[in-house]
Amino acid sequence: MLIYDIHSHFGPTSSGECVTASDMYHDLSSYGIQKVGISCLSGVSTVEQNDLVYTVQRELPDFVEAYAFINPKDPHALDEIDRCLGDLKMNGVKFHSWKQGYYPDNRPELDDIFSQIEHYGVHVQMHVGTAPLSNPYTWSEHARKHPKIDFVFTHMGYYEFGLSCIEMALRYKNIYLETSGQMNPLILKDAIKKIGSQRIVFGTDWPYKPVNIEIDKLLHLDLNSDDLENIFYKNAMYLWRQS
To answer: Any residues with CB less than 8 A from the CB of 41 and at least 6 apart, and which?
Structure first.
């Protein structure tokens, strides 16, 4: 079965450890992952961060899907969207309100940013989990206002917001839930039961999570083959507009 990792990262880790494109390729592919979507969270310049993932995508074009990392506080955010999605042909946009220090419901710039993204037809990802800056309720308001954009709530809310993510995904059909870091099997099972496997998508959050654990936890849920195929690769193909 194909395994596509829709949510990982590249660049120096939080502890300052440096990784290479070769490191990422060999680590992920050793667990059977055939394609990965990456953004760079390391550094202060989104231009430099985005240039880095673009370089990796050029180095591994059949393995990497590159995402733009956008900070709504940046006065040049709209220009960076056009550069990344238009000129560089990136295939998604990553937001991280906790790391960049903003409340999603207190950044009016996000409305224009999402409207700009909508023109390119790509999905968006946001770190969800880690109170108080990254809760699903504030991001869901943007999903409500921009129904033509697919929103991926990474980590399925982590430790605090698993049930809340399910609640928001039930409310808005353009919200998908990603699995990395969500280690509560009851939350994972409940999400699949209530919203269906068509909106649950696999990620590893490499290099921050053990890849084997992220895969094995899903294999131990006793899911049928259709559900596993949806989660492990078919939903990623849809969000990458490859199906």
So the answer is: 9, 11, 49, 69, 94, 96, 99
